[in-house]
Amino acid sequence: MVFKKDMISIILPCYNVEKYLARAIKSILNQNCNYFELLIIIDGSPDNSKLIAEEYAKEDPRIKVFEKPNGGLSDARNFGLERAEGEFVYFMDSDDWIDNGLLLDNVKILEEDSLDFIIFGYTQDNEDLEGNVLSFRNVIPKLNYLSSTSHSPAVIDSHTLGLMGYAWNKIYRRDFLMKNNIWFEKGTSLVEDILFNVQVYNNSDKIVFNKRAYYHYINRPVVTLIKTFHRNSFQLKSRKVEVLKEMFQKWHIQNSNSILSQNMMQGIRYCLTNLYGFKNNLSRKEKHQYIKLMYDDVLTNELIKFYKPQNLRDRVFKIMVEKKMVRTTSLMYSILRK
Prior knowledge:
With 338 residues, the protein is α/β, with parallel strands linked by helices.
């Protein structure tokens, strides 16, 4: 492999994104930094994504199109990472788009401060079914940096932790990832980004934030009835909390129990919505067993006492978890679904 100094390898996995792919590619080609390669990974996509990508590749030699059997987002990202030739790596989702200063601005900070990675802000664009932007909000880092070698305990909030979780609002130094054997976990969904990034943080001593938004995350309406329930959702959400717990110890996070309990309860709420709002063939008894599994979990019981309700609904939810009110929970979420 020819290692190319200062070049950025952009890895763009594609699966059923023919409606959005052209905009994603155009936003990359419009960057005010020309020294990049774009690796488009067609992950067994059954639509016209490959044809769209190949049309752009004919016009621009920086674009490389690869096709592989479907293996999921993590597998496609790893496939691209194995073939990347740049000094820096950027993972982008193919149904979003980026502002033209993303690469140049952030690589400049990486170089000047000799960083292994950098985190930047994003804009959430809320679209309707026709793709019109109804509203937007900028999600900007509040902190300048975190240091694991500082003698003072650090404090973070859910806002900062959210920014730390994604893969698409970071640029990484490639040799740092290779040296520490950091890859995405194939076959894992829902929490693949944070599992990857916890490895990054655990092998670093400094986290630097760029307080500008460059990435446009598109929030589109989704019909939940067509989504499928995943029985392992709670295991994945619990695992996220477990790896965060380890990371918080390294980074001396002072308010770790508060943040962990919030994440644990958010995870349970997600699973309940998943259980009652998405398509599944579970009987009422099986649904009750699933709720009981979550409420009896060791980590749930360890963290629930640190959970601080923000409103009446939160207080009711905390009581249901503490008292293990399985049937009441089932009734409430059945009503909410209707």
